[in-house]
Amino acid sequence: MFDPGFILAGVLNGLLAGGIYVLVAVGLTLIYGVLHIINFAHGSLLMLAMYAVFFLWKLAGLDPYMSLPIVIVGAFVVGFLLYRGLIGRFSHGRDENILLITLGVSIVADNGALLFFGGNTETVDVPYAGQIIELGVAFLPLAKVISFVASLVICLALGLFMAKTDTGKAIRAVAKERQGARLVGIDVEKIFAISYGIGIACLGAAACLLMPTFYVTPQSGYAFVLVAFTTVVLGGMGSFVGAAVGGFLIGVTESLGGLFLGEQLGQIGISLIFILILLFRPTGLFGAKA
Amino acid sequence: MAPPRCCVLEITGLRAGYGAIEILRGVDLAVGAGEIVALLGSNGAGKSTLNNNVCGLFKPFGGTVRFDGKDIAGAASTRIVEEGLIQVPEGRRVFPNLSVRDNLELGSYRRGRKDRARNLDRVVDIFPRLKERWAQSAGTLSGGEQQMLAIGRGLMGEPRLLILDEPSLGLSPLLVEEMFALIGRLNTDGLALLLVEQNVVQSLAIAHRAYVLENGRIALSGKASELAENPELRKSYLGH
Ligand SMILES: Nc1ncnc2c1ncn2[C@@H]1O[C@H](COP(=O)(O)OP(=O)(O)OP(=O)(O)O)[C@@H](O)[C@H]1O
Ligand SMILES: [Mg+2]
Questions:
Q1: In a structure prediction context, what are the per-residue pLDDT tens digits for chain A, which is 290 residues long?
Q2: Which of B92, B195, B202, B198 is nearest to B141 (CA)?
Q3: B89 to A183: CB separation less than 8 angstroms, yes or no
Q4: Could you tell which of B29, B42, B48 is best to mutate to test the pocket of ligand 1, judged by most ligand atoms within 8 Å of the CB?
Q5: Who among B56, B109, B113 is closest to A170 (CB)?
Q6: Domains of chain A: total
């Protein structure tokens, strides 16, 4: 059981799973960094995006990977409009109102999903679902390798966008210095909406990459959001790099925990990390000192 | 002395404050084309309040603000910047997490984007120090360097009127001299400036006209050279 090849395989599998966590966490950390709130609707919006992928496949015959561009753009638009029409309009600039509204969105989304989609477990059948590729000692599911690579590419693209474009720089500027941003003519409210939209677009991407190997129910979002929240705390609230490193660390922890403690107990490692971080390094690995 | 006829900025009866508290209670002030106008007043008189209401960070309670003849009272800051009214605020407000270069580039986010490269060169000419710190994040700059960056960022937006709120705050005497020399040079190039300063003597020396804000109203105004000789003003600001 402690054979190094076995452990290596566990690490690889954890890294592959981590890619999705990174995407979900990057969205959460981006919204936190700019709006300074935890987006309570994160899990529910992920679940809705997963249903969108499911229905695109079921009704239009679209492969989840093919629906990536549609779902990413659609999720961005939903996030942008959600902020513009609801969160920004009714929060009156108060953080606790934003929290409550996102919580309300999540309650409506969860119950709406239950009402309209039912409580059944829905899956997407893709021909490549069972395909395995052999990498030295490890046998890795093809779909997971694809989702890992795609997550990395999407995160890199987002990082480039944030570093190189005027809009990306404006988002970073608004995160730290709103008044300064207004003084150079940045439309701060619009940047809030764009940031929220990008955060939700990350969920759209995660949903497409998840569905070939996962299922969706109205509760599907929760597991991921718990993990994403741990990731964001681990990496440092609002830190982009932290979310990326944290996501992979969590993936590996879960995978190794599953190997040694059994599938059901794999997540204990995550809770353990969460508690240890809060005890010994509350600012996270890459977080700024408060 | 009456303000010049062709005003870049013309404020009449401006009332503004915070919540129920009225800080400005009917302020009249104008800046003519190519003028340096100094705005004086004790701490808490409402100078920054005036700047921030003119720039759209707050909505005035009443009164008119005209910029190039267009009414901008209560307009969004995005539009005001677009028109070319740019403020370098008290406390600099640079983006601490962005590099010097990115800070400057964002100065032309709304206005002056077309000539960004040329304006970057110009700002670097004015502040060679910024070029040495090009990739450093603004939060780690010294106070003086941050002030240069804030002014440079303001210039990137090709201002038609530049409001400087305490640009020499926290600068060493030598840098204060340089700052005033720079203000003079910018003005020689045709830029209109509204200058809020604690260095009363120096700002009156460089300004064409000046206003003194007291109890929410303009208590004194006139030619800077005449105000510099005004006994009341000398008593309240210079102690003799
Ligand atoms: N955001 C705010 N909320 C409430 N009151 C404020 C706010 N900003 C300023 N004030 C109050 O308004 C008054 C005028 O402040 P302001 O900053 O305009 O003064 P100032 O003339 O710029 O002073 P200084 O020379 O010290 O910069 C002060 O009494 C201040 O306490
Ligand atoms: Mg002030």
A1: 567 778 888 888 889 989 999 999 999 999 999 998 889 999 999 999 999 999 999 999 999 999 999 999 999 999 999 999 999 888 877 888 888 999 999 999 999 999 999 989 999 998 888 898 887 777 888 999 999 999 999 999 999 999 999 999 999 999 999 999 999 999 999 999 999 999 999 999 999 999 999 999 999 988 888 888 888 888 888 888 888 888 998 888 888 888 888 777 777 778 888 888 888 888 888 876 54
A2: B92
A3: yes
A4: B48
A5: B109
A6: 1
Query: Å from B111 to nearest chain A CA?
Result: 8
Nearest to A47 by CA among A228, A194, A254: A228
B48 lines ligand 1 (CB under 6 A): yes
Q: SS3 for B176?
A: helix
Distance CA B215, CA B239 (A): 19
Look-up of token digits 């502040």: B127
User: Considering the entire predicted model, what is its pTM?
Assistant: 0.93
Quote the domain boundaries for residue A63: 15-218
What residues of chain B score a pLDDT lower than 70? 1-6, 238-240
Domain limits of chain B? 1-84+160-167+178-240, 91-159
- With residue B161 as reference, give the H or E element that holds it: strand B161-165
Residue written as token pair 């003003």: B233
Which of B59, B98, B99 to probe by mutation at the A interface, max A CB count within 10 Å? B98
Angstroms from B57 CA to nearest CA on chain A: 7
Cα(A98)–Cα(B48) distance, integer angstroms? 30
Domain contains A7: no
Mutate-to-test residue for ligand 1 from B14, B15, B23, B169, highest number of ligand atoms within 8 A of CB: B23
Q: Looking at the domain assignment, is residue A268 inside a domain? A: no
Name the residue among A248, A262, A225, A265 with its Cα closest to residue A16.
A248
Tokens matching residue A137: 């000692």
Task: Report if residue A214 sits inside a domain.
Answer: yes
User: What homologous superfamily does CATH list for B1-84+160-167+178-240?
Assistant: P-loop containing nucleotide triphosphate hydrolases (3.40.50.300)
A162-214, pLDDT tens digit by residue?
999 999 999 999 999 999 999 999 999 999 999 999 999 999 999 999 999 99
Q: Which ligand lies nearest the alpha carbon of B198?
A: 1
Chain B residue with minimum CA distance to A164: B102
Nearest Cβ partner for A176 among B56, B57, B96: B96
In a domain, A248, yes or no: no
